[in-house]
Amino acid sequence: MSKSSRVPTSVKASENICIRAELNQKPAFGVLAMPFLRTSLLSAEPAGVLQSLDELFALAHAMEQEAAKRYDALADDMREQGKDDLADVFAKLAAAEREHVDSVTRWSQSRRGKIPDPAMVRWEAPETLAPESAAEVKTSRLMTPYRALAMAVRNEERAFAFWSYLAAYSDDRDIKKASEAMAKEELGHVATLRKERRRAYHREHERSGAEASSVPLRQIDAQRLELRLVLQLSDMERRLSGPAAIRTQDIRQQTIEMADATVGLGSFPASMERKGPLEIAEALVDGYLDGAERSSDAAHLERLQQLAERAISRLAWLRSLSAD
Question: Are 9-206 and 219-323 the same fold in CATH?
């Protein structure tokens, strides 16, 4: 397999994140606050609530298994079409999902003393891979590793939305904490895939980048973009009402906090200030991930990783709010 299509399968183990959640670590951006994520990331709200940890583990296990099967099938399709670069991407995505399956199994054994039982899944889980996405992969001549990874990012965001929604509506303390942990785990998957997507983008645009103008562009730091986003969120808040306005207010307040923590951090084209909130939020995610990837200082790395996690969660919420 070529280096250019490699997707790492070394992601944070589920049980490590679960331990942090069970120690009452606050989720980024109030992961469980409200059900807005169903508007753009979920095609329909979950059909019920979880009644036990056994049911939660069974559902998580089934969702990860289904994702692995879908990616395996796409890898086979791409191989049959002679698109080996895409086949390699989907094969690696499938391998990553199987690691997630194993992580859920270990967590279930640790907490419940047994492996997840498929019979405990009482209702149909959401599609882990949207049918229209799978169809696009099979038929589009324009599909590239970058676009394939972008689709995978969206799927992980859907999983984040699903677990966030379930946690928000659970009255059981253990289920709520475990669902929080699953949502937090999905954010880790999003971060991993976004890094690979960005690398794929740079590979696909190496030539155009080399031919681009060498005139330096004026740069601004992350704080400048965070403060611009604060203003845009204020405008959004005035246009919304009810729970959506409250959710936006919460995001705005936390964005102010992030601005305070990002003085002199990062480097972005000044033209980003003219972009909309989603574009700015996404640029900040990539900026924090880029910085973390290049950092050699442990404290600075941890700071950037925390900012990236919060920024990823914020982006998912903003996508849902913009669809209301």
Answer: yes
